[in-house]
Structure formats: C-alpha cells, structure tokens
Amino acid sequence: MDKETIEKVANLSKLAVEEGELSDFKDELLNILDYFDKLDEANTENVPPTSHVMEIINKMREDEVEKELDNESALKNSSNPQEGYFKGPKVRD
Amino acid sequence: MNHIESILKIKKGELSSLEYLEKFIDQINKKEDEINAFITLNEEKAREKAKEIDKKINNGKEVGKLAGTPIAIKDSIITKNLRTTCGSQMLKDFSPQYDADVIKKIKKEDGIIIGKTNCDEFCMGTSTETSYFGPTHNPIDHEKVPGGSSGGSAAAIKYGASPFSLGSDTGGSVRCPASFCGTVGLKPTYGSISRYGLIAYASSLDQIGTITNTIEESAYLFDVIKGKTKNDSTSLKYPDRDVYEELDTDISQKTIGVPQEFFGEGVDQEVNEEVKKSIKDLEDQGAKIKSVNIPSMEYALAAYYLVAIGEASSNLARFDGVRYGHYSNKNKDWEDYFSEVRREGFGKEVKRRIMLGTYALSAGYYEKYYQKALKIRTLLKNDFERALNESDLLVAPTMPFKPFELGEKIEDPLSLYFADILTVPINMVGLPALSVPSKEEDIGIQIIGEPFSEGEILSTGKIIEEENQ
Predict the structure, then answer these.
(1) Quick one: pLDDT at residue B149?
(2) What is the C-alpha to C-alpha distance for residues A38 and B177, in angstroms, rounded to an integer?
(3) Can you tell me the ipTM of this complex?
(4) What are the tens digits of pLDDT across the range A3-55?
C-alpha cells in the first residue's frame, strides 16, 4: 500500500485526507492489513461463504402506501432545505 | 435492591414513579461529572412522564410492564425529538424524527427514558474512548476504561444512574462493558430484537442488548423488547414465551462445554482462573463439564474485522452533510463537499475503518479479504454447531483481561482490536451470549447458547450470580 493507493482509497471513501495525515494512516492501515494476512493460512477450499447466519430467504411484503414522515419533519435536520426539498452541493459548473 | 420489585411497588401505588426517578437523578447529580456516562440527559421530560404515570395509577388505570421505571439508552439507538449522536461530531445536533422499534416498545410499556449514554463513535471501539464527547470512566476505578462500545450504559448501571439500560453489540459492545463494569450484559440471538432505528455499523452482526445489575432484570427487559417487527426484515419471530418466566436454576441435566481456544494465548491467567472457579461451581451443582473445540477460532478476529469494516464502509456512506448531520457552508462541488464534510465530521478510528473497509472491498482485493472472511464465517458456524451438539451451552471468559487504564491502548488500534478476541466469534455466528460477573467484579463470564436459548443462558448465569453473592 503506497501513498497513491491511500489517496485512491480516501477518494473512494469520500474522505479528504490532508498531506500530513497520509503517512500516519499508511502505517496504521499497513499494520492492520498485515494482521489480516493471517487469513491466507486458513484452508477454505470448497467452503461456501456465509453472509447471513440465520438462513432467511428474501422476505417480501405488499408494496402499500403508509403514512410516514411529512415534508416538514423530513427536512427538519437538513442544513439547507429549499422550497420543500433538500438542496445538495452542485454537481457541475 | 432488585428493580423489578420497585416496578411492582409502583404498579400497586406503594412507590411513586416520580419519587423513584428522583433517586436516580440525585445519583446523576452526585456522580455524573466524574463518570461521564451520558451524552444527553432527559431529566425534565422524564419527570413529566413520571407524573403522568403516577396520575394514571392513582386513577386506577392499567400501566405497562415497565410502569414508570427509568431506562438509559445507548446513543446508537434513535429516540424521537431527543438528540441522538452515536458518539460522533457527525450527529452532534441530530434530532430524530421517529423512535427505534425498541423505543416504541419501551414507551408502550411505560418505561421512561432518563438519558442517552456515551459510546465509542459509531460504536467503533472497545473502551468508549473514541467518543467525540470524551471518555467514560469506569465506576469501579475511575482511572480505568469502562469497556466499550456501550461503556456509558454499563457505567450508568454501575453507579446507580438508572435501573435498566440498552446497549448494542456488533462484536462485543454489550458484553465487554458489562464485564469491565461488573454488570450483566445480554447479547441476544441475531434477529431476536428489531434493529430498526439502531444506527447501522455492520448490519449482519449488529444486535441490541440489555445491560442491568442482575440476571432477572436482564430477562425482564429482554421480554419487553424482543420479537419480530415489520420494519426490520431480518428480525425473527421469537418463540411464544417469556424468558423471565423460564429462569430455572436446576442445572443437573445440563452439559457445559468449555471451549479450549477461549482459554489460550492472550488470555490472562487471572481471568482463566476466575472463570474456572465458576465452572467448578456449576459442576458442584450437578452439571456435566465437557471440553470442546472451536478450531477456526484463530481466524475469527481477522475475519470479524473484515466483515465489520466492509459493512461499515457501505453503511456510513449515508453521511453526506445534506439530509442530516454535520454540514459545511462552503460552496464546493459534490465530491469535495462530501469529502470535506466527512473529513470534519468523522473521528480517526471511524475514518480508519471506512478506509480499510473500502480497500478490502475494492476490485482486486475482494476475494483475498472479504470473500475469505465470509468463508471463515462458515467454518466458525460449523465449529459452534458441533460444539453445541456435544454440549448444551458454552462457558468461557468474556474479555481476555481486566479493564485497562484510560489512554493505555488508544494509540495502538491493533492492540485494542485484540481485546475483542473472545466476543467477536459469537456475532459472526449469531448466537446469544451473556456476560455475568465472576467473584472478581471486573472479570466477566461469558455464557453462549443455541439460537433462542436466552432463557437457558440466563438461568445458568443466575446460578453463577447466586454463588457469587
């Protein structure tokens, strides 16, 4: 993991990392990744992955309209609501 | 004093709910400054609610199972119109628009929310030191950590700020602070309690649990909050019975499995000895003791962290500074805006886990890390199934060591991850587990059972509790 990889991961994570933080992060992450390499030793040939332990198959329900948050309440925690909408940052100039 | 008796007294009109609440508020006023168990206190609204309940009782009306008893809620569980931060600057001013399913259930049974308890930021930690709101101190020894991430809930129970509390447990976050603070912590079967309104860390591992002083209180509270709801599609129908009514201290027909890997390298001798004393007590009460093995245990910690951070990197993508949470006034394009808001709003450990999770899930690494971890999860599941076929339940230490000093491990993330070595395997396999104090107050004994065996593990915990009184 080099400086470039860290920058790429930070960008994918949408986390601005300052120049000074980069090397700290690099050392810490490398240290942890080293430990994760322990898994290479485990024999998992023919072992299927488990992503959910309780063996639930897709659960469906009727798609019915229910009373949820009203507009005012939904916008209550927004930094910048406008005319009943969330206003996001600009997407292009 | 057992707080269930107080509930019964309130119901009969022998004790007023307000009077009862004031005793806890007094304790908070005396000690909260030293302990820092709460992020937000709710005293005034709690008083109003207590008066309402007293009025109901005086008018001869029925009240719910929690009948005006206070309850402290970990700040990872959202509460309508009561600030919920999850220990993060990102949610410093967040006021939820609705209640979590567990909060609805508590309110329906006339429980009173006394405050929101401190926790590691987004529940990522083992010591409550990563909270934006400062660390919580262990009431047993103020220089020590209370454990984490639900450190505030366990400390609040220990110092008498509340009779009941809720925490959440992704890799031990209920059991660890319960163990460090000499309290009882129950992480129930995955799916037995709705996660709707629990701020997501790692959804396939997260589970709400209880922290109380006694086993009976734990069972009582669990009965109130358990069961399937329509808002959490992973929640499961709980067998139709009250766990509290199932508590039974006859263990003579039981076989206790002792998983050897839980007593191995990295576990302090003192901890091993304490846990073995309690196993001996169970044997003296007629239980059969059997040695069992979890061979894939050595990979559990690495596999757990990969699953947890992978899910976290995805779950925490929702914090964008637009709909709620920390925001910036700078006029930037979306990419810089999100990156800046997240840089400011998240603390170091959260950033570390998001970056690691993103890396582990990225093209070229997915198979080496995440996929491999899911295969280890299968091995663990098989190992625990085998061990629980050979025995009725497992008894082991909760934490590999006693509480450490505040500041001792926080600069070395990996050493802190190692503290979770005995609790994370249980979340990987979704089983219920309990931590109950041993004869040494700050050493917890972990009891693990089959899915939906909360009654059985709590009953076994009760024997240990009675032996140690």
Answers:
(1) 98
(2) 28
(3) 0.95
(4) 889 999 999 999 998 888 888 888 889 999 999 999 999 999 999 999 888 87
| Residues composing chain A | 93
What's residue A2's pLDDT?
84
Exposure string of B233-245, with b = 16+ CB inside 10 Å and e = fewer, is: ebbbebeeeebbe
- Partners of B336 on chain A (C-beta within 8 Å) are 16, 89
Convert the pLDDT of each residue in B364-378 to its tens digit: 999 999 999 999 999
CA distance B314 to B342: 14
- CA B15 from chain centre, in angstroms, equals 30
Rounded-to-integer distance, Cα B372 and Cα B212, Å = 37
Spatial CA neighbour of B246 closest among B32, B467, B458? B458
Q: What is the dihedral of CA B332, B338, B343, B344, to 10 degrees?
A: 70
| pLDDT at B115 (0 to 100) | 98
Q: Which two tokens stand for residue B67?
A: 């009948």
Cβ of B302 and A38 within 8 Å? Answer: yes
Model confidence at B311, in pLDDT bands (50, 70, 90)? very high
In a domain, B343, yes or no: no
Q: Is residue B58 part of a domain?
A: yes
Sign of CA dihedral B89, B95, B100, B103: positive
Residue B198 has pLDDT above 70, yes or no: yes
A2 shares contact with chain B (CB less than 8 Å)? no
Asked whether the predicted pLDDT for residue B2 surpasses 70, the reply is: yes
How far is residue B365's CA from residue B359's CA, in Å, rounded to a whole number? 7
With a cut of 90, say whether residue A67 has pLDDT above it: no
Q: Would you tell me which residues 205-234 of chain B have a C-beta closer than 8 angstroms to some C-beta of chain A?
A: 230, 233-234
Distances (CA, A) of A81 to A71, A73, A77, B203: 11, 11, 9, 30
| Mean local confidence (pLDDT), B58-79 | 97
Q: How many helices (H) and strands (E) in chain B? A: 16, 11
B279: containing domain: 1-293+395-469
Into how many domains does chain B fold?
A: 1
- Residue B70: which H helix or E strand, with range? strand B70-74
- Chain B residue at shortest CA distance from A39: B299
Residues making up chain B, counted from first to last: 469
Please tell me the number of Cα atoms within 13 Å of B91 on its side-chain side: 23
B355 assigned to some structural domain? no
- For tokens 């929640």, name the residue: B235
CB–CB contact A90 B333 (8 Å):
yes
The CATH number of the domain where B152 resides is what? 3.90.1300.10
At B393, the pLDDT band (50, 70, 90 cuts) reads very high
Question: Residues B65-92: what's their mean pLDDT?
Answer: 98
Residue B169, pLDDT above cutoff 90: yes
Residues 6+ apart with CB under 8 A from B333: A89, A90, A91, A92, A93
Say whether B334 and A53 touch across the interface (CB within 8 A).
no
